[in-house]
User: Fold this.
Amino acid sequence: MKYLIIKKIIKNSTLAREFIFRSEKWLRDDLYSSVLDHALYELVSVLHPDLLVDVSLKRLGSKNDGGYVFCDLNREYSKLISFGVGDNTDFESELSPLVDFIDLYDFTIDQLPREVLKGTFHKKGLAPIATDGFLTISDAADDVLDDNDLLLKIDIEGGEWDSIDATDERLLRNFSQIFLELHDLHLVHKKEQLEKYIRVLNKLRKNHFLVSVHANNWSPYSVIRGVPLPDTIEITLLRKDLYAGKLDSRISQDNSHLARNNPNVPEYQTIFQSYIVNT
Assistant:
């Protein structure tokens, strides 16, 4: 009861709300004071999507959280390797007509929440080095190392950075499309983390276009040294040899195919993602 009374007092007190706001800002500014502007802006730069003129983008999977943007190239693929299943296989199920095989990995569950056509479940996790119960991206693609019609999805709550960092870029080039949920962007105040983020994103962009960037509005959102940055983003990459069209230099793009992860919270607006409102 006493907490409800305190909450009510704060809610109805302009002075209390202003004090909390200023305290949070002071703590946040102090935390990120060591972040170098040029490094932060480099991160923002590598998160700007390549605007492809002639590629059809559509969202596959759940209506809200659990869906990813897919480049519809009117072609089929040999295998989808999916790390991080959890309680949702809608994305994998919707992709199943376009692939020959699907390998699904997750060490936190004992079985799939529902059967996936052409899918095989493995109770294993993803790690930069193979250990008991964990394998690498290279291990998962061991039987298709010469195949360049692969798809890769990773959503493992932060471990994606180290695993991709440890993966040979020649192997990453075998994936026609890559779907990632990238976590922990609020850790940019740690120099090693920020450098890793930039390094991994540059590695991914060496042979792939970054075709979609979407902020997950279930995650926290911070303004870091004047730069608005969500903690979690979803990205889609398309291998460059699969697109021979033009790049659009406009600052806006139609993202009407996107959907809010949390339908009860407004969509985050980021500086590396802009919108055209359909009328």
Notes: Residues 20-27, 274-279 have pLDDT under 50 and may be disordered.
